[in-house]
Amino acid sequence: MVVYWRNDRPVGHVFVVDGPVPVAVDGVDPEVLAAIDAEEKAAPMPRHSASVVICTRDRPDELARCLASLPAQSYPAHEVIVVDNASRDERTRDVALAAGATYVREHRAGLDVARNAGARRATADIVVYTDDDVLLHPCWLERMVAAFDSLEIAAVTGLVLPAELATDAQWHFETHWSFGRGYVRKDFTPERFSARTDDVFPAWEIGAGASMAFRRPVFDTVGWFDERLDVGQAGCSGDSEFWYRLLAHGRTCRYEPRAVAFHFHRRTIDGLASQIFHYMRGHAAALLVQYERTGLIVNRTQALWRMPRWYAGRLWHRMRSGASAQDRFLKEELTGYLSGLVFYWRRRGES
User: Fold this and answer.
1) SS3 347
2) Average pLDDT taken over every residue of the chain
3) What's 206's DSSP letter?
4) In which band, very low, low, confident or very high, does the pLDDT at 164 lie, cut at 50, 70 and 90?
């Protein structure tokens, strides 16, 4: 994967299997580059303080690598908070304190539980989240915070690129499940949300939880992350459910590709299979949580009617035409989705 940069920001990429690396980016036309250049000229400086929150469990080496990329940031964090989500030994604590971070121990399992603990501990204007398996571009924090350039912006996500593509599992993830959302800024507004009446607004397209930020007061107005969702609970979608909730409350979410982070995808096929199972488990649960919290019936229809029909169609196509690369983990997707429905049924009404 070759990523092309212009004025210290990525503008496109190509995949190269064999042969020489192309010198031009396919699909990036002059109008796109002109829009990117205009964004750069108009880019504001950050005006808010930032608390960086890293939630982690039993990955001290990855945490140390992530923390090492923070001192090089062009915009210093007001504080760095490491939330230890019930690690089994003291190594996470030692790594956090050695890096000068604030250490918070959260004994209850669950990524959203840890995210809430970090938000409650944060004292800055903006709460910025990243993951322990991420490396941060030196301008990442500056550009995340600067994107809050109007009061309407309640949340910001950044561009997440792969840190390596060394294994078959990493290639498959980047090809079919990529965190990347393109190279042009996008604002997801309440008007766009309200106009989507026939199906569920795709809040997962806003970005990735590995690089996201919120105005601190939004937690007081729309609530906290739903602790039934994401890693350690349903398995995923705690981030997208929160973005969905913000939109439903009339707030705007922004995707800012100038803020770049690099994510280390799962290296093994077994690890990727488990990840996809939990992705779809969390997605199913999140749809029903969204219905529970907003009353928008399209979420329930999606969870109980459209998605089962979609999977039935994929299974029928596979039986008639054979498996495709996209269906490599179809069993994990389907069983994960059904597991998510059961998970929600057992935990319905909680928050």
Assistant:
1) helix
2) 93
3) G
4) very high
Among candidate residues 263, 238, 235, 239, the one with its CA nearest the CA of residue 253? 239
Tell me, what's the pLDDT at 25?
Answer: 55
**pLDDT in the model for residue 258:** 93
pLDDT at 36: 80
Per 3-state DSSP, the chain is made up of helix, strand and coil in percentages (nearest 5) of: 45, 20, 35
**Amino acid found at 263:** H
C-beta of residue 55 within 8 angstroms of C-beta of residue 127: no
Separation of alpha carbons 31 and 155, rounded Å: 27
Q: What is the DSSP letter of 216?
A: T
Q: Is 235 exposed, middle or buried (0-12, 13-18, 19+ CB in 10 A)?
A: buried
> Tell me: the pLDDT tens digits for 274-289?
999 999 999 999 999 9
DSSP 106: E
Q: CA separation (Å) from 165 to 269, 279, 325?
A: 13, 20, 17
Q: Name every residue whose Cβ is closer than 8 Å to that of residue 243 and which is 6 or more positions away in sequence.
A: 155, 188, 203, 206, 207, 253
CB atoms near residue 79 (< 10 Å): 17
The answer to whether 333 and 280 are in contact (CB under 8 A) is yes
Reduced 3-state DSSP string for 193-204: HHHCCCCCCCHH
Structural contact between residues 82 and 103, judged by C-beta atoms closer than 8 angstroms: yes
Which 8-state DSSP code applies to residue 21? Answer: P
Distances (CA, A) of 213 to 50, 140, 143: 9, 11, 11
Q: With bands split at pLDDT 50, 70 and 90, how would you rate the model's confidence at 112?
A: very high
pLDDT digits (tens, 9 = 90+) for 13-56: 888 877 776 665 555 667 778 878 887 777 788 899 999 999 99
Residue 84 main-chain phi, psi, to 5 deg:
-90, 110
CB-based contacts of 21: which residues, under 8 Å, 6+ apart?
2
Looking at the DSSP assignment, which residues form a beta bridge with residue 108?
Answer: none
The pLDDT of residue 209 is 97
